[in-house]
Amino acid sequence: MTQPKVLISDKMDPKAAQIFRDRGVHVDEITGKTPEELKAIIGEYDGLAIRSSTKVTKQILEAATNLKVVGRAGIGVDNVDIPAASAKGVVVMNTPFGNSITTAEHAIALMFALARQLPEADASTQAGKWEKNRFMGVEVTGKTLGLIGAGNIGSIVASRALGLRMKVVAFDPFLTPERAVELGIEKVELDELLRRADFITLHTPLTDQTRNILSRENLAKTKKGVRIVNCARGGLIDEAALKDGLDSGHIAGAALDVFETEPAKDSPLFGTPNFISTPHLGASTSEAQVNVAIQVAEQLSDFLLLGGITNALNVPSLSAEEAPRLKPYMALAEKLGSLVGQLTTGTIPRISIHAEGAASELNTKPMVAAVLAGFLREQSDTVNMVNAPFLAKERGIEVREVRTEKEGDYHTLLRVSVKTSAGERSVAGTLFSNAEPRLVELFGIKVEAELAGHMMYIVNEDAPGFIGRIGTLLGENGINIGTFNLGRRDAGGEAVLLLSVDSPVPAGVIDQASKLPGVKLVRPLKF
Ligand SMILES: NC(=O)C1=CN([C@@H]2O[C@H](COP(=O)(O)OP(=O)(O)OC[C@H]3O[C@@H](n4cnc5c(N)ncnc54)[C@H](O)[C@@H]3O)[C@@H](O)[C@H]2O)C=CC1
Ligand SMILES: O=C(O)C(=O)COP(=O)(O)O
């Protein structure tokens, strides 16, 4: 295996580079590149480790000809074009918990800074003014905190706020009533939160649903004297409307760690009384940066060296421990998918993957992705486990997954069935000696074959003399037969023949074979 190469393109704790080196991954740290400069070098790398500064756009991905994985040392991945990465088969991972406490603490810090006007009081005092009567704050005790988003960070903010004796209400469509009770908070609709909250903090990702969630219209619905903290993403608040609300006095204070355009070197909000800002520092503590650096380096190394997938946003997880056990199953799954893909034509409305016996006890999600990758390989050269499920969806293929713990004839079995216009057709395979993929059933006929290299699939009438004729034809054309696998529905009925051959079979030979007496179908196969 050639040594994988990773580029760290944003400032990261040195522990990340150390881990890559210790694990045998080549690492370059090149930060502060423009998109054009990044485009020029990205083609060399198998992995890219980023924070929020690097924008992994479609154009960057197009130039990333070797890229297999992007690792975000942090949480938000709105700087990565995930659909484009998925379409290219690039895994995108983040480190979902490493900086959550730190970011929650920053939100609480900003809430206090607003409540007591700390930055302005500090500037005035250090300017020698001693304006004791100018700064009159508010207590947070007994006040209502409105959380928009109650996931990891929002929940930590809630627990800290409850400790400060605040009342916490939350708007989060995905928050279950049980979880709200567990957190000791009240789940409310957005309008009610806006009406009741003395402080509002935001903790959602930036998505099409959350963009501009504090719009001008929604800001107008807030309680007079509200104080707002955004440590999540710029784009969640209408910045111009926020400025107007601060100027009119309806909003008593606002603290932004994040801005619609970053780096925010200029903003109409700058200099507004009761406005506080920090330069996207939510995750910037030494503890959090060490956490996310270690996690991202371990995750990328596991993926590039062992095939382990952790915290991926566009592909099912597969731990580094599971990966070696699943590897032969993935190979089997991909071969079965490929066989079905090569032997079926026309539109396929449904594909079902059935895991039986030992296979059913494993993580079948990656096997399903491998079947789809094999199946779609006929249609696209760039398909892999990451983009296959997306391609299948795009093509309107329904994917079903079935598990049966009970063993059948085999200790472990994978069956791939497709719905075609001619009805349901299925192939099945097992693992010999627990690692070698073998086909054991082909469209209802028992066979036993290794699916490898160049092969020929022949359906013929089960009659004497056929095997000799096909052997002669291939021999006359200089094609050496490697293995020969026969199966039949019943004596004298339909038989199938799977041949492995040492070289590709030219179209002319396929044509001659299909004209041999009794032959119904001949197809070349490649694995
Ligand atoms: N300022 C900074 O340096 C940092 C900012 N962040 C930001 O904080 C965000 C939240 O992080 P986590 O809590 O870890 O994420 P999370 O995924 O655990 O929680 C997000 C919550 O938002 C909720 N949500 C989704 N759509 C919503 C909607 N339309 N309305 C209301 N709620 C909605 C989800 O149900 C979920 O509970 C990240 O996406 C990131 O953008 C994260 C770390 C550092
Ligand atoms: O983790 C996140 O979502 C953050 O926003 C942190 O961003 P950063 O890594 O500090 O640029």
Structure explained in plain terms:
The chain is an alpha/beta fold and 527 residues long. It is built from 17 helices and 22 strands. Helix 3 links the parallel strand 3 and strand 4. Helix 1 packs parallel to helix 12, helix 5 crosses helix 7 and helix 13 packs parallel to helix 14. 2-oxo-3-(phosphonooxy)propanoic acid binds next to loops. Keywords: Amino-acid biosynthesis, NAD, Oxidoreductase, Serine biosynthesis.
- Span between N and C termini? 21 Å
| SS content category | alpha/beta
CATH superfamily of the largest domain: NAD(P)-binding Rossmann-like Domain
Query: Could you give the order of strands across the largest sheet?
Result: 8-7-6-9-10-11-12
Low-confidence stretches: none
Compute the number of helices: 17
Provide the CATH topology of the largest domain: Rossmann fold
Sum up the overall morphology in one term: elongated
Average pLDDT taken over every residue:
95
Question: What is the CA-based Rg, rounded?
Answer: 30 Å
In total, how many beta strands? 22
Ligands bound, unique: 1,4-dihydronicotinamide adenine dinucleotide, 2-oxo-3-(phosphonooxy)propanoic acid
User: In which range does the helix fraction lie?
Assistant: 25-40%
Quickly count the domains.
4
* DSSP strand content: 15-25%
Biggest sheet, open or closed, and with what strands and sense? 7 strands, parallel
